[in-house]
Each structure stands twice: as structure tokens, then as C-alpha cells.
Amino acid sequence: MVNKNAPIGVFDSGVGGLTVVREIMRQIPNEKIVYFGDTARVPYGSKSKETVTRYSRQIVRFLQAQDVKAIVVACNTASAYALDEIEKEADIPMIGVVKPGTKAAAEATSNGKIGVIGTEGTIGSGIYSRYIKEINHDVSVIGKACPLFVPLVEEGLWQDPVTDEIAKRYLTELIDIGIDTLILGCTHYPLIRSTVGRIMGEGVQLVNPAYETARELKELLEAEHILNDEEAKLGDNRYRFFVSDAAEKFKHFANSIIKYGILSAKVIHIEEY
Ligand code: DGL
Predict the structure, then answer these.
(1) Using one digit for the tens of pLDDT, what is the confidence trace for 29-51?
(2) pLDDT number for residue 200
(3) Residue 146 annotated as catalytic
(4) pLDDT for 78-95, tens place per residue?
(5) Given 60, 75, 95, 98, which residue is catalytic?
(6) How far apart are CA 7 and CA 62, in angstroms?
């Protein structure tokens, strides 16, 4: 019998998955969270499917050792490359961030032209297009890799002329094609949502997979009868953060995006799992 009071495991290649954690905290505040950010091996976006899958497997083993009741793959690249494999091997529910965003985008488009921005890995995998076409075959999906967005966000340049300039270069192609819906298909992009939105213009709806994932997670926990109905108390190990390197830097970034103070982040040796 699964303990409803057990935490949800959430992982990402680094800090980006905290945008998903933030949404889980908002939408299902009773849930406890164990987060792992692979800060020693980030980025995943430029690595191969085999490598990202191996890393993801190790992280799942670590999270299962923390007795989590479900796992959220909060990284788009890991969801694109590894989720199919690792969910077959796990005996607890698992969701990624790709599928929830595709449903929202397929519902949002009126002209049938959806853009997706993400890492090279996510865009190269073609996964967003595949899932959207399963929902509606007539929609066209245009992917654009935006590799410079991750370092810009991590440098804190969320509102900056440099980010504006790079965003214009990346997004012009999607504007010219006339998309009416754009999926922010990378963990970091919700943090530059206002820049992307301004450049795309009012006619383009932005889909934030972090928000959609938290919504689907809630539905999944309800369906599995493992939604936590005990009110969470501060300080009872409600949110725990682990990283593979540079805990101080992680904490600093985390505190800039999550209201709830990150009390500590512990370094673990992920290669041992
Ligand atoms: N978390 C990754 C993603 O959402 C972005 C950072 C990376 O490349 O590892 O795809």
C-alpha cells in the first residue's frame, strides 16, 4: 500500500526543473517534494540519448531510495529521450513535461500552426511534433532549438537587451511562418516568458509545460488514489533538495525563483546509483 504522505520525486539536469517545482507547490501544496538537480552533468540538451538515459536511470534509482510515491521528469530533454525507457522499469507512476504541454497546445491553436522551442536534444527528437500529431494530424509543428537561452537565464539576464536580441534572432522564423501557439519546451523558458511573449506578439499564445505538468500530476495522483490529504507543515522535511555539485550556487538560483526559502541543498554522488 503506497503511503500518500510520501514525497513526489522531481528531477532535472540542474536548476531549470525548479520552474516545475514552483508550479507543483502552487497547485498541490500538500505534496512533499524531493528534488534532484544534476548540476555536475548539466547541460543535457546537447548530450546524446544514451547518455541522458543513463543519467536519468541513476537519478530514478536515487529518488526511489528516498521512497518517493511518484516521479516527475521535470527536464524536457530527459522527457524526450529517456522517459519511455525509464517508466517501463519503474513500479511507481511517472510523468514527463512533454506530453502535458502538447495537449494544451493542440487545444489552443486556431490556425493549426504550433511552434516549439527547446534544447537541441528536445527539438531534434521530434517528440513534440509526434505527440501533437497523435492528437490532431492536421496541425503543423515547427521546432526551433534555442541553445543560448539556458545560459542567459542562468546568468540572470531575464530582462536584458542581450536576451531580447538573441530571442529576436531565434523567433523571427516562427513569426514569419505565422504560428499562433508557442510551447516553451525547456525548463528555463518560463523565466523569460515576458520577453518571448513581447517578441511573438499578442496573437501568439504561450504554453508553459511546467504549469500543465503540475495540473496533470494532480490528476494522476487522484487517479492513483495517492494525492496527499494531510496538510503539510513547514519544517517537516516538506521540501528537500539534492544536487550533484555546486550546492551554494543552486541555492542562490533557487531562492530567486521559489518564494518558499530553500533551507538546504545537499550534494550527493549520483554516479553511485
Ligand atoms: N532542463 C533542460 C531541458 O528542459 C535544459 C537545460 C539542459 O540542457 O540541461 O531540456
Answers:
(1) 999 999 999 999 999 999 999 99
(2) 98
(3) no
(4) 999 999 999 999 999 999
(5) 75
(6) 13
pLDDT reading at 235 higher than 70: no
Cα 229 from Cα 231, distance rounded (Å):
6
Here the cell at position 40 is 555536475
Reduced to 3 states (helix: H, G, I; strand: E, B; else coil), residue 228 is coil
For the packed helices 161-177 and 193-200, what is the interaxial angle rounded to 10 degrees? Answer: 50
Q: Which helix (H) or strand (E) holds 240?
A: strand 239-243
**CA 21, CA 158: separation in Å to the nearest integer?**
19
Q: Which atom of ligand 1 is nearest to the CA of 42?
A: 9
Name the grid cell of 143.
Answer: 521546432
Could you tell me if 196 and 167 are in contact, meaning their C-beta atoms sit under 8 angstroms apart? Answer: yes
19 CB under 6 A from ligand 1? Answer: no
Measured distance CA(273)–CA(271) in Å, rounded: 5
Active-site residue (options: 117, 186, 206, 262): 186
165/245 Cα distance (integer angstroms): 32
Q: And the C-alpha cell for 126?
A: 521530434
Contacts of 263 (CB under 8 A, 6+ apart): 239
Asked if residues 23 and 211 have their Cβ atoms less than 8 Å apart, the reply is yes
Place of cell 499564445: 205
Omega prior to 43 cis, within 30 of 0: yes
For residues 157-164, average pLDDT: 97
